[in-house]
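Lecture notes, part 5. Sequence design as translation. It can be helpful to think of inverse folding as translation between two languages: the language of shapes and the language of residues. The source text, in structure tokens, appears below.
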């Protein structure tokens, strides 16, 4: 159990104070120029009126006034230099993130969503070519604290609006997200975590939902919520051992989710105090990888593997890689993960469920989604495995998806349908325009319809009694936060995605320089 009483001091700088001082100075600077100019012009106009017939005396007076203005500007030069320095500091700490989109009220959220899907369907081609994000993404890191990286540009206020229009979102989907975030804000624990149980994992998932909306510690509505969650996760990681071997054992589901959240947090804000925690969490999941490239409970290095465990590790690898985690073996771990999914978890002979849970093939729809999404995130979106499972989801699973399944027995997080839909939603989004259109027009309205009045979601009910307890559904005491976070993340898919560029081998295939080409001709290339 993590040490929830430990305290870590907040960052030394105060962005709000810096911004306030900066704005005050800028206001003074902006007022000084016009006032001086006004005084000068009054004198000049007065001189013209009094001395209509211009002579050398008038010209001399005008020149003297202009010289005095220049002298005043020279005297203010030191102050202006100070203002410029302050401006540089402010640019580093003030985010480009704006407050959340406040969507207008609607009497019928479902009709809004349906209309948006209809418009979206008219705009896109009926093909299954991979979605093209090249016109809205700029794959460049940003090193300025609290300044939204171009890599996450889709999460800014304008970026969200553009992406929602382009990919089939609506006021209704965004309204549902805002209501979910508001509920999460109100139900956050005092230490920055969420839920009565599985707090670090829930803190990671809930923080991911705020980050997906572009929220940082300086956000007007959710800044304090985000800051507390970040500090909680930092404290949690500090309690973890330095390696995965020995005792105490590390819970890989939790560490994968925490590493994922910290990596996105650092990538989005570049706050220095996040990086050591991110690096440690990512290192632990790399250190816990099996020789096959897979993962098991407690990061065990035995024969058994578990694709469900592995899924969170690979998502964290992608986020950590993009954010610049200082883990030397990270690229190798990514390549091993790709190989594991394709060559170990995938069974090309099982046409109905080729992705396996703990043996090749035969896994649930959640496993089909997890394995496929991770291949997409790691640059294998055009692979045979991805195309096969994507088509399988559209043809076999989408037609039978319902919110209440009388044949489903809920017994924990993995039997929660949202666990499956979280993965499948992202798979469909990345798979192709036609696939995404079919998924979006059914799935988004279903989520909106089943959101509770106060903004949270609960596990979709199954009506089959648990043979051990006799209960109809027992998703755990953390369910409301778990399901709400997954629902928010699924409805944020329009703008929360990261580039699915080839990684890491693809990065080495950049355009060669003239010297590189000459080395090739001479046979000197390494």
């Amino acid at each position: 159990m993590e040490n929830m009483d430990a305290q870590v001091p907040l960052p030394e700088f105060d962005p709000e104070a810096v911004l306030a001082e900066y704005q005050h100075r800028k206001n003074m600077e902006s007022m000084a120029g016009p006032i001086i100019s006004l005084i000068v012009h009054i004198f000049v106009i007065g001189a013209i009126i009094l001395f209509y017939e211009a002579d050398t005396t008038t010209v001399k007076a005008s020149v003297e006034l202009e010289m005095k203005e220049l002298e005043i500007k020279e005297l203010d030069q030191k102050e202006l230099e100070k203002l410029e320095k302050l401006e540089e500091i402010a640019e580093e700490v003030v985010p480009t993130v704006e407050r959340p989109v406040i969507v207008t009220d609607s009497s019928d959220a479902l009709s809004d969503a349906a209309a948006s899907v209809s418009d979206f369907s008219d705009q896109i081609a009926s093909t299954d070519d991979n979605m093209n994000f090249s016109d809205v993404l700029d794959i460049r890191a940003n090193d300025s604290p609290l300044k939204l990286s171009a890599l996450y540009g889709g999460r800014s206020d304008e970026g969200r609006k553009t992406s929602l229009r382009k990919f089939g979102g609506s006021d209704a989907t965004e309204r549902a997200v805002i209501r979910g975030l508001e509920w999460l804000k109100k139900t956050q624990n005092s230490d920055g975590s969420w839920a009565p149980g599985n707090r670090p994992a829930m803190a990671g998932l809930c923080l991911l939902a705020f980050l997906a909306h572009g929220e940082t510690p300086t956000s007007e509505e959710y800044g304090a919520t985000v800051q507390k969650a970040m500090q909680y996760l930092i404290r949690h990681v500090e309690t973890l051992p330095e390696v995965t071997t020995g005792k105490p054992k590390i819970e890989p589901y939790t560490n994968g989710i925490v590493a994922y959240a910290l990596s996105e947090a650092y990538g989005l804000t570049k706050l220095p105090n996040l990086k050591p925690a991110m690096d440690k969490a990512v290192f632990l999941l790399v250190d816990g990888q099996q020789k096959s490239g897979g993962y098991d409970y407690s990061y065990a290095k035995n024969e058994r593997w578990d694709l469900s465990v592995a899924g969170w590790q690979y998502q964290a690898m992608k986020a950590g890689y993009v954010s610049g985690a200082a883990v030397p073996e990270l690229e190798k771990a990514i390549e091993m993960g790709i190989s594991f999914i394709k060559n170990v978890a995938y069974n090309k002979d099982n046409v109905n469920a080729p992705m396996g849970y703990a043996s090749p093939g035969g896994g649930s729809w959640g496993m089909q989604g997890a394995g496929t999404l991770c291949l997409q995130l790691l640059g294998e979106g055009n692979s045979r495995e991805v195309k096969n499972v994507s088509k399988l989801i559209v043809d076999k699973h989408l037609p039978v998806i319902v919110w209440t399944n009388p044949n489903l027995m809920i017994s924990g997080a993995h039997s929660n349908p949202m666990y499956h839909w979280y993965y499948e939603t992202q798979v469909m989004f990345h798979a192709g325009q036609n696939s995404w259109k079919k998924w979006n027009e059914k799935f988004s309205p279903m989520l909106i319809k089943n959101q509770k009045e106060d903004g949270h979601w609960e596990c979709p009910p199954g009506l089959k009694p648990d043979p051990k307890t006799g209960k109809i559904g027992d998703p755990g005491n953390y369910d409301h936060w778990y399901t709400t976070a997954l629902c928010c993340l699924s409805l944020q898919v329009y703008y929360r995605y990261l580039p699915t560029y080839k990684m890491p081998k693809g990065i080495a295939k950049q355009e060669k320089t003239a010297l590189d080409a000459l080395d090739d001709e001479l046979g000197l290339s390494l």
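The translated text above is only one of many valid answers, since several sequences can fold into similar shapes. The chain has 20 helices and no strands.
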